[in-house]
Write a structure and sequence with these properties.
- The structure is a homodimer.
- By secondary structure, chain A is an alpha/beta fold.
- The first copy, chain A, has two domains: about 250 residues, Acetylglutamate kinase-like (Carbamate kinase), CATH 3.40.1160.10; about 150 residues, 2-Layer Sandwich (VC0802-like).
- Chain A is built from 13 helices and 18 strands.
- Chain A has an eight-stranded mixed sheet with strand order 3-6-2-1-9-11-12-10, with helices on both faces. A six-stranded antiparallel sheet of chain A has the order 14-15-13-16-18-17. A two-stranded antiparallel ribbon of chain A has the order 4-5.
- The longest helix of chain A has 16 residues.
- The two termini of chain A are about 35 Å apart.
- At the A-B interface, α2, α3 and α4 of A face α2, α3 and α4 of B.
- Chains A, B: GO terms for molecular function: aspartate kinase activity; ATP binding.
- Chains A, B: This is Aspartokinase.
Chain lengths: ~425, ~425
């Protein structure tokens, strides 16, 4: 017997027929003798409608009221799924964030989970009752409903799994797992059977959209084995994969991964813009004069590259910001021109960040060198580079995205077949 | 300065534009220096959609889950109205049933309010904050959401007014008050400026649809002065009526009504069916043998008339049941034929109950005699009669409804002009 948390997103619960399909997935796990908690999102479209109403009510509005309105979507799904499960003869009840409770901090609209009273749920699971939990929501210190931000149901599911010390958290999604890269760009991309937490964290942070970054962080911190699988699988299909799992990707501790690849995947993000300052004074405090104003304007700076100074007095500095903040960032830099002291500022939104990720890189040298050589052979110019222990990210012209990703995918032996 | 509870139904909050209109009504009362609590229903159509989903999920379903799903409608409206009020510069916050809390019994789907923590709301009202309360909902002894049954927001509003010791509970509805009878039947029907609690209770119980019977009961028990007014009034129109009230009807203690009429109104209900048993044994226990099985089948019996026995051994018995239960009631009676012992059962759904209501009847004899005479002159046959201290109800052939109501309306001097 295992204890399993199952999470279903909005498309999987878009109408009662699909909720019935979800219930059949749940029934299969119950029939196999598992203790089951289910975390659900709002029915597809519901959250968008609720958000639209809050915006129509007032462009800028009280985040506490926003949370009260928007959290109702998951409340509806939880109740409906409980009804459908009961009709199938399965003992089940819905749980709202405030009922368990799932305690969060006070950051309405983007709250972080502080504590989940797992024993309340465990008592019921042990009695054979399925807990159907409204995702995306909790209760703040002010006794009001909080929400975790868009896509927060993934985070709810992993947090519940951690609180229940579940054997696994199954994320049912519209893809059947995590791929070596985006299959729309590289048709020969392979589904990974397993990926380490650290790798998945980099993949999610660097552009792979399968899971919320925060949910992966949480899974890593608490060691929650997280299994990404397709919600379109027939609920009645035999679970024939390794460990009686169907096709999908298990995100787990690297110790669980026997055959480690040097490179596990290639991520890319088009959501970047590059800004370059020429001939900035090369002296202490200059970085603060550049990034202070950007931080004040709530703009996240990602890659930062500062060349070694040629004359010992001036340097060039390049950094990236989210594409949506590009224009605003340029203005901030221009307004701060006097304090910073640069000769020229230029920028471009036509850049892409391509990242090569793999825990095997820790123990293998030469990955970066191979990468630079292969891209040079294709005539792709690298505009900036950053590295960490398990990833190398480069900034290139967006026009070369597909070529670069395919080249690297082949280079590191990730192509299928 | 007064303390006022304002209640708005589903049509009044059907979209953001109408919610803005509601907010303007609230603002007017705030600007006049009043402490204001607002009780809201779900946006028109929302509850029907939610109910339809629960039915699609399972025809027979857990009332606790039903409540969880359906109560979300009022949650959404409360949050949206709070946002709109804030945008108008009015301090406001939403309150859900479990947050105040509004404690109810455990009868999910048709719960009764047990207690409201009024001091929580009062603290805020005294600070000048408008309390926007989700109607129709509370929290049960099991810490789960309960709902009060359809139309329960009226009951929520009156209960909140009682808990806050409010000076008045204003019910904004799609009619501009309580009329002497249904104006669609009697174009010369008059709006009543005031009506006593007891009269309103009879009017509501006997067919007038302006207010939920339970809300009137509650208003009577707690002496909550309840004002029925139109939600279509311009929020900016001067409040020029008596006591600075606009056109509408004040439901109040009879002491507040100076000029008491003998008859205040005529109610009628087509939602009736009549069943007659011929030659029932006239002996102790026979009533129990008839009404026991009906009660077991959850069928409410209303008017009961038992003729004096002619031969001392047999009698005829007539009673009414809700029209929707007519077929089922006939079956129950037929299955119990052996225990009851009757010669013949007959029934008809073509009946209407017409009631004449007025607290003045207590001190005036002859009201019934006048009534029977006037109807006889029109050739209307009375099939059954029941009376109470302040009302006379008769059962007649449905075809005569309009004729009877108009005749009685004129007879008691209720016609306009």
């Amino acid at each position: 017997m295992s204890r399993i948390v199952m999470k279903f997103g909005g498309t999987s619960v878009a109408d009662i027929e699909r909720i019935r399909n979800v219930a059949r997935h749940v029934k299969r796990e119950c029939d196999a003798g598992h203790e089951v908690a289910v975390v659900v999102s709002a029915m597809a479209g519901a959250t968008n409608q609720l958000v639209a109403w809050t915006r129509e009510a007032a462009a800028i509005h009280d985040a506490r009221e926003y949370d009260t309105v928007v959290a109702s979507g998951e409340q509806v799904t939880a109740g409906l799924l409980a009804i459908v499960l009961q009709q199938m003869g399965i003992s089940a009840r819905s749980w709202l964030g405030w009922q368990i409770p799932i305690r969060t901090d006070a950051a309405h609209g983007a709250a972080r989970i502080a504590d989940i009273a797992g024993h309340v749920l465990l008592d019921r699971l042990r009695q054979g009752q399925v807990a159907v939990i409204a995702g995306f929501q909790g209760i703040g210190p002010d006794n009001r409903i909080t929400t975790l931000g868009r896509g927060g149901s993934d985070t709810s599911a992993v947090a519940v799994a951690a609180a229940l010390k579940a054997d696994r958290c199954d994320i049912y999604t519209d893809v059947d797992g995590v791929y070596t890269t985006d299959p729309r760009v590289v048709p020969r991309a392979r589904r990974l059977d397993r990926i380490a937490f650290e790798e998945m964290l980099e993949m999610a942070s660097l552009g792979a959209k399968v899971l919320q970054v925060r949910s992966v962080e949480l899974a890593m911190v608490h060691g929650v084995r997280t299994f990404v699988r397709s919600s379109f699988d027939s609920p009645d299909a035999p679970q024939t994969g390794p460990g009686n799992l169907p096709p999908g990707t298990l995100i787990c501790d690297e110790d669980e991964i026997v055959e480690k690849q040097i490179v596990t995947g290639i991520a890319f993000s088009k959501d970047e813009a590059k800004i370059t300052l020429r001939r900035v004074a090369d002296k202490p405090g200059v970085a603060a004069s550049v990034f202070g104003p950007l931080s004040d304007a709530n703009i996240n700076v990602d890659v930062i590259v500062q060349n070694v100074s040629a004359d010992g007095r001036h340097t060039d500095m390049t950094f990236t910001v989210p594409r949506a903040d590009f224009e605003r960032a340029m203005e901030v830099i221009r307004s701060a021109a006097a304090e910073i002291g640069y000769e020229e500022v230029s920028g471009s939104a036509d850049v892409v960040k391509v990242s090569v990720i793999g825990i095997g890189m820790r123990s293998h040298a030469g990955v970066a060198a191979q990468m630079f050589k292969a891209l040079a052979e294709k005539g792709i110019n690298i505009q900036a580079i950053t590295t960490s222990e398990i990833k190398i990210s480069i900034l290139i012209d967006a026009a070369y995205t597909e070529l670069a990703v395919r080249t690297l995918h082949s280079l590191y032996g990730l192509d299928e077949g």
